[in-house]
Amino acid sequence: MIKRTLKQVQEMAAGLNDITSFQSMGIQGVTIDSRTVTEGCLFIPLKGGQVDGHQYVKQALADGAAASFWQKDVPNPPTDLPLIFVENTEKALQELARSYRTQLNIKVVGITGSNGKTTTKDMTAALLATTYKVHKTSGNFNNHLGLPLTVLSMEEDTEAAVLEMGMSSRGEIEFLSKMAKPEVAIITNIGESHLLDLGSREEIANAKLEIVEGLAKEGVLIYHGDEPLLRNRIKKDFLDLNVLSFGRTEQNDLFPQLITQGADSTSFTIACDGTEAEYEIPVLGHHNVLNALAAILAAKKLGVGDSSIRKGLSAIQLTNMRMELVEGAKGQKIINDAYNASPTSVKAAIELIEGLSGFENKILVLGDMLELGPQEKDFHLKIGELISSERIDKIFTYGPLAEFIAQGASKAFSSERVQAFHDKQKLIAELKSTTQANDIILVKASRGMKLEEVVQALQK
Fold first, then answer.
1. Whether the Cβ atoms of residue 24 and residue 7 lie closer than 8 Å to each other
2. What are the structural domains, with CATH classification, of the chain?
3. What is the mean pLDDT of residues 75-83?
């Protein structure tokens, strides 16, 4: 974590007031939440729509914070506490992180994309950790507040950082990339998330490509080469950019020649440096092979050898609720992928379940996909239509939009094999009474649907 004197902090964050009386004091770490104050940290109060963090400054310092920022337009600042006045506390947090990043001698991998960001982050960090001391984005700390907090939480001796970059509108990825200054940038894919905000997949692709704005001069962009919106734009507008592509097809720099799905792992073969090599990841899904390919390209670019890559792949630990395989109370196998959902990621998850064998029943529990804009009903309907009645045994949906999935599936499935629910407890009760040992159950929906509650209930 950042360790600086208050004089250094003031200079890094463009502080406004005279702090001579306490400038030699030191801080260790930063927090914007008064409930997570640690001894000696810097508290940064933010003005929100509902709560103004300035009202917690006194308590934060009483609980052990060494000092606090104070936004100059906020009235009645305490006169007896070590405060650094700034124009805007949020911008000061970001400026402090930007300055700290320039002081660190680290290799940075920046990752964005519509789906698979967090999984690719976890995979890339696992590969780099075989060779470097690595810091990675925690959870979903990937926005204009989360990324600076992630940067400020790095130790001075960090050698490599893997930073996830999320967005909801244009300009956000550019902002984050210029703060992170990556040597390697990864775009996992272009899906349908944020259609509500950006209007089209073309605009989503443009927004994701903003990641090159902060890319080091000799840096490399690694991108999903099967996506025409990326490939065509890069060939047209980024001719001087160092690029590597991954995907399912031979037009890419790295692609799988063979993928074998196991019970709890996935093996794949790739041709690299003139030879064929087989790799294994302790994760299910063909789409996760593509995430692994992006991570492999990044690791190789940063000098990680093949033996270390194999070691790293075997040690991957994904963030919770991303293709997380757990067991139900009856012995059911449950894939908890309830953190997020879009048409692209739902299709990939369904493809995974359809390709599995050796189970009594293959069951889909699908909830609403949110933030899809005016075509949201059509997206759900088409998901239902593509589900194979020969490879999937039962479908349960939850939510008003997911009911259109059930409607689409009913064209190929008999009525007793498809059920739509609006009451989560009734859904849970039905799953508990009808599923059994040796069933495989996929649970997937957008975060707002909280379908992890279904997974937790089936485990009790």
1. yes
2. 3-88 (3.40.1390.10), 104-314 (3.40.1190.10), 324-459 (3.90.190.20)
3. 93
